[in-house]
Each structure stands twice: as C-alpha cells, then as structure tokens.
Amino acid sequence: MTGPRQSADRLGRLLNLVPYLLARPGILVAEAAADLGVSERQLREDLELLWVCGLPGYGPGDLIDMALDGDRVTISHDAGIDRPLRLTQDEALALVVALRMLAETPGTGHRDVIERALAKIENAAGDLADAPVAVRLPANAKRVDKVRAAVESGHALRMTYYTAARDETTDRVVDPMRVLMVGGKAYLEAWCRRAEATRLFRIDRIDDFTELAEPSRPPAGAEPHDLTGGVFHPTPDLPLVTLRVGRRSRWITEYYPVEEVHRSGGDEWIVTMRVTDLGWAQRLLLGLGPDVTVLGPPELLTRIREQATAALDQYSTPGR
After folding, report:
1. What is the mean pLDDT of each run of 10 residues along the chain (320 residues)?
2. What region holds the PafC HTH domain (predicted)?
3. pTM of the model
4. Which of 91, 137, 224, 286 would suit a FRET pair with 25, their CA atoms being 20 to 30 Å apart?
C-alpha cells in the first residue's frame, strides 16, 4: 500500500539512512534493517533508491555512492547528507515532557542516565524546552516512596488493601517484587500469600501496611506481569457484558478495553466487553444511568434489577 503517509515515512527514513550508515561502515544489512524497524527487503529497496539520489547535475561525484558487498553495506560518498534529521518542535517538546516525568517518577532506576538524556534534549530544543508545560505526578507520591523503601528493604509486608472489583477490604501478607508505574498509576507487584499468585496492587488503594521481620521470598514460579498492553488483559474465561450505549456514554469504549462496537441504529452503539468481576460491572453500570442499557449476561441483569428495586424501596418506605 502506498500513499502520502507511506511516502513521507520513506523520505524520512532515506534522509536518516545515509548518516546512519556513515557511522557504521560495513554493517550487515540484516542488522541495519533490525535497527531501523524495517524488513531486509525494504532496506535493500531503499538502498537501490539512494543510488540514484544526490545533488543537481546527477553526474559522477553528485550522486550518493555505496559499496554493497553481499550482506554488508558501506557509504563511500554521502553527497552532503551527513547529518540526521533534527527533531520537530512537537517531537522535541514531547521528549522533554516525557523525560521530565520519568525523572520525577518514584522508583525509577538509572536516574543519572535519564537526566543526561534530558539535558541533551533540552540543549537541542533551545527555548522550546522552557515551554510552560506542567508535569504532574500522582498525588500519593509520598506513599509510593514509603512502599518503595519497604520493597528495597527486602522484607515481606502485611497490608490492608481495598479491592475495587469486589468492593471489599482485605488483610493479606505479600512478598514484594517491584514498584512500577502504568498509565500514570503506581503499583506494587508482589506474591500474594492469600491468593497464592502474583498480584498487582494499586498503591493508592493500600490503606495501611507494616513491614515484617521476615524476608520477602516470592516462590520460584512467581512471574512478573507482562504490562506492555496495560494492566488489564481480557481473556475468554472472563464474563462477557453486552451493552446498548447512548451518545453521552460512548466514552466507556475509550476508557475501558472492549471486544466489539457496532451501530444499533440512530446514535446508539452495541458494545461488548470483558470484565474481571460482575460486581464491579454492576456498580459501574448503575452509575451510568439510563444512557446505558444492559443486554447481558442474564445474571448481571438480575443483579442490577434487584439492587435498583431495593434502592427504590428505600425511598418508598415511610420513616426512612
């Protein structure tokens, strides 16, 4: 598939390819392709195009020249394209903000490396680095620091934790593994002795904790979570909820992972989503009001109907 977006991507790649190869004479084509995030076939096509690019005149000494010896490539004449493209203003600002946030995030390792990278980007960005952009960390930063210090001590923790999915508070002993930030929220990842599994605990939902004298000893099979796609990973064994959603509540399709969305007619959408717990779904949907209609599963319909009826009875009973 070709088009303006693909052409712009290729132009940017070609302009960066020459200085990249100049700095790595004799590099393997396969290694360069992996570094640049393209297939080996695409890189060879780019190299063939570079052979006919250069300065006006397009004669000997004007065109880019290279030696492609089997699986290795070396630039022998760069035609003046010896420096990579500079960041755009938006790209530079995005990097500055991201690095500032990372530098201030509790528990982040290699802070010196982050600060050196930030200094280089700010120097390259010039006045743009002083743009009035506020970097705000979670309000519970002090609590995050306390939990991180407890984790670094290497001891088990006894804690009181609120589980939003079941709307309950429990006491449990955990063997901490790490503190991490996902989606702007801080989590403690630990082996939970109560659940006998690795769990993620949102630090703002830890009501209280005590550091125990015994060391933290997660079992050998305690694997850290894969968080590349976020904290919640819907699986086929989880309950499937089907909703009819009006215009005002379409935001839930962006805020929560959904399986399918299709139009029902007019402004309404039919939305299906996996949930960890029907109790959590019940509380969420009761709060959304009449703009959302639950179509299934039957158990969720029954639970919502019973809770709504009980609430109405409270209003109709004299003296309450």
Report:
1. 54 77 87 86 84 65 76 78 63 74 60 73 62 54 81 91 79 90 79 90 89 90 73 75 87 81 84 84 82 89 85 69
2. 9-122
3. 0.45
4. 91
